[in-house]
Amino acid sequence: MTRNLKFYLGLSVILFGSFCLGFGAAAQNDFKLGVVDTQRVFENFTKAQEANEVLKRAQDKLTGELQGLQQEIDTMVDRLEKQRLFLEAPETQRLEADIRLKGQALQQRLEDGQEQILAKREELLAPLTQEIESLLQQVGESEGFSLILEKRLVTLYVDPKYDLTERVLKLLNDTYEKEQSKDAQQSAPPPETETGKEGEKNN
Predict the structure, then answer these.
(1) Max alpha carbon distance in the chain (Å)?
(2) Are 168 and 135 in contact (CB under 8 A)?
(3) What's the CA gap between 182 and 67, in Å, rounded?
(4) What's the sign of the alpha-carbon dihedral 81, 83, 88, 91?
(5) Which pLDDT tens digit goes with each residue over 169-201?
(6) Which domain CATH number covers 84?
(7) To which H or E segment does residue 25 belong?
(8) Nearest C-alpha neighbor of 139 from the set 12, 10, 32, 5
(9) Measured distance CA(121)–CA(51) in Å, rounded
(10) 203 found inside a domain
(11) What are phi and psi of 87, to 5 degrees?
(12) pLDDT tens, residue by residue, 126-172
């Protein structure tokens, strides 16, 4: 066993021992720990899925536009190569300039499109990240958690009883479902009254 390996193993034992002692002391003071897989929460949050679908449609549309421009460029290049021997120098230069301009247009559309998608991503997803963080804070405060950690980054194994992922996900989706139901009720036309029905019959 090398000296470095012995050192790191020794350090790991010391750190683990310190953690256990600290955790034991904290447990005596009603320390309450929770973990959350925020990636899983985000990927399965209905509102986030809908936002990602909007972004996917925008990306697909941009990809289609870029492919169309690239096909135009390919056609222009192919035509030039087939006719090059039969063209005068000024005409060849003009066609080459047209190809360069079309290539610049393609690059500009790519940059503009990506900027627009990134801006839209920030607009749609940043509030959802804040919503998840806010809910975690509410859960932590209302249920007396001392610490809620990101599951994927800090644990190799955790007892399922400490895992809040599914609970948080259910709270988010239930809340969103209620919001959708409320919006649908508000946007629905008012029910027709008996007086209104009688008026229609008389007309």
Answers:
(1) 100
(2) yes
(3) 42
(4) negative
(5) 999 999 999 999 887 887 767 666 655 555 555
(6) 3.30.910.20
(7) helix 3-28
(8) 32
(9) 8
(10) no
(11) -105, 145
(12) 999 999 999 999 999 999 999 999 998 877 888 999 999 999 999 99
Three-state DSSP state, 196: helix
Chain mean position to CA 158: 26
Q: What residues make up the domain containing 71?
A: 32-181
Which 8-state DSSP code applies to residue 29?
A: T
Tokens standing for 116?
């627009």
Strand bridging mode 147-150 / 33-36:
parallel
Q: Which residues of 126-142 are buried (b: 16+ CB within 10 A; e: fewer)?
A: eebeebbeebbeebbee
Asked, for residue 98, whether it belongs to a domain, the answer is: yes
**Residue 9 placed within a domain:** no
Question: In total, how many domains does the chain have?
Answer: 1
Structure tokens at 8: 């790191």
Residue 36 belongs to some domain of the structure: yes
Structure tokens at 64: 């289609």
**What is the value of pTM for the model shown?**
0.72
Tokens standing for 3?
Answer: 């000296």
Length of the chain: 203
